[in-house]
Amino acid sequence: MFIKFDAKSDRKLLFYSDYLASIDKNHAEIARKLNEPDYKDILTEKEKKEIDRNSDVWLKQSRNEWVLKKKVAIKDKPIDKCQLCNTRLRKEKWKIQNKINGKNLWIGRDCGSKIIALSEQGNNKDTADQAKRRELLYSGSRKLREVTDGISNFDLYTRYVLTQPFNDRVGNLKKKIKICIDDYIQKDLKHDLTHVIDAYNIEFLRLQKEYNRYNSDVATDGQHLPIQIATKIKKQRQGTALIREVQNNKGMLDKRIASKIMIPEFLDLYREQMNDRLGYTLCKSVEQARIILNFSLRGKKLEIKYNSGAVISSLGFPVELSDTKSEQDIYDILRTSNTVITDVSTKEFMNQLVENTLKKLRITRCDSITVDKVRKYILLKEKYDKGKKTSTSTRVIENKLRKYHLWIDINRNIILNLEPQIVISTGQELLVSVTEDKYAVDSLLNNAKRYSEDELLQKIYMDIQVEDARFN
């Protein structure tokens, strides 16, 4: 799989440096092809594999050949371009020189900082000769190449998130191979590595067998996390930690982990799973951290948007619906879940249920506080007041009354100020049971302002006075 050298500056650096050309003609040809615009098309498959395997070493050795000669500030209109990335040089240009072949390049500050900083860090453990010997060791041992390429392919080609114990074993094998090869190269050892490589190959083949079995066995269980979805999950909040939890849980999702995943791609898989288990389409769509369910209850169509974590926590992962037979069953399970309703017809239906429930409690809409009653109250209050009069216009009083949503508790003869529309917000308890025409009105009544008729008229009167004072 050819994945290296999308950056033009890296390809140019290999072309202008001496390292690849000094190995052999084949490597010099790779450097030449990398400098061509259509390099991906003209490189052979063998050359692409060679690049994937050795590119890090090539870049380290190539950067190590260059030294900074001078920096020049650009004061006039920029006309020169960086000889590596081809972007226009705007603030300053750097002159770098190759210590081996003597070539000079004028480059920008960004490219220069990357090359010079990395070469001056001294983290290139191999000399140029050692790097060439390392590459010859790999190119001369097919089995060593198969082991190292195969280990890299575990991550590249896996269909599902791998378990942490498996990743640990792969990491340990990579570490053993690295220590062995580093020791062999840097100490200039001459002994034959065939038996050592054979032992690594046996360990790799065991891992490969387990890897193949894992990817084929988990394909149908629905609990293992596809790698494409895992890549998306990493971008959400705490996503990397969630993937680690999956790895530590034998590579499997459970209800606790799944309820934390918010990305639409995963919720879409859950939607399909839910509908398959039910045998009908209850969930037609999902959003970020939301699952939208469409119920048909008592002849009404309800579209309710649930918090995805609440749904997964309630219905399980995989979806557990063995005892669930109807939409009413699902609705009853989820009725206290975190919910948002945006569908207009559903809101209207909910509001009607609220009104029905209030009527059963002998709480009805209050029609006794009229414009005339408020006007008479104001005139009576100010009958003997020779100061500034309060407005009694119909428009002013009507505007003020619109801000009050008045119901009357007939049992207590108390006026209640309630919301005109039922605001369904996350965390609010919804319907107790649609079939019983009941709505959870307790929170609505608990938050209501309570007045006697005189108290309410006095409050309206004071509010109008305040508004008059503001505009006069």
Work out the number of β strands: 13
Helix content: 40-55%
Query: In angstroms, what is the radius of gyration?
Result: 37 Å
Choose one word for the global shape: elongated
Show unreliable segments.
423-435
Mean pLDDT: 82
Work out the strand percent.
5-15%
Strand order of the largest sheet: 4-5-6-7
**Continuous helix count:** 21
Number of domain units = 4
Distance between the termini: 78 Å
Would you mind describing this structure in some detail?
It is a single chain. The chain has 472 residues and is an alpha+beta fold. The chain folds into four domains: 8-123, no CATH class; 141-220, no CATH class; 258-339, no CATH class; 344-471, no CATH class. Helix content is 53%, strand content 13%. The chain has a four-stranded antiparallel sheet. A four-stranded antiparallel sheet has the order 8-9-10-13. It is elongated and about 110 Å long. The model is unreliable at 423-435 (pLDDT under 50).
Please supply descriptive tags for the structure shown above:
4-stranded antiparallel sheet; 472 residues; alpha+beta; 21 helices; 4 domains; single chain
Helix and strand topology:
Elements: H1 8-16, H2 19-23, H3 25-34, H4 39-42, H5 45-63, E1 66-73, E2 92-98, E3 104-108, H6 109-120, H7 128-140, H8 142-157, H9 164-186, H10 194-217, H11 227-233, H12 239-248, H13 255-258, H14 264-278, E4 283-287, E5 290-297, E6 300-307, H15 308-315, H16 327-334, E7 339-340, H17 344-360, E8 363-365, H18 371-381, H19 394-402, E9 406-409, E10 414-417, E11 431-433, E12 438-439, H20 442-446, E13 449-451, H21 453-471
Antiparallel strand pairs: 1-2, 2-3, 4-5, 5-6, 6-7, 8-9, 9-10, 10-13, 11-12
